Amino acid sequence: MSLLTKSELAKMPLIYTQEDVELDDKIVYFKFFTPWTSWTWYAMESDGSHYCFGFVEGQEDELGYFCLRELAKVIGPAGLRIEKDRYFEPTKFKDLKRS
User: Fold this and answer.
1) How far apart are CA 25 and CA 15, in angstroms?
2) pLDDT by residue (tens digit) across 55-76?
């Protein structure tokens, strides 16, 4: 199971290519979430393959790296899996509505 297609991965800038862009102005391209918890991953950059840099809302909120392959392997209660928000539109980080 793959969370993003190759064409979707190609829409994101490569990791480190946006270092000069202020965090608030960086674009968040994809949102992933666990339907059984409040964990959410927002992808801003990728290595073009499996790793993304972005914002993670979990026990703590933080910027960091996450692996799409690892997220795709997570199985929750009743076989639920981490999902890509199909209705999420790319948006600036400062415009994310975080609770």
Assistant:
1) 16
2) 999 999 999 999 999 999 999 9
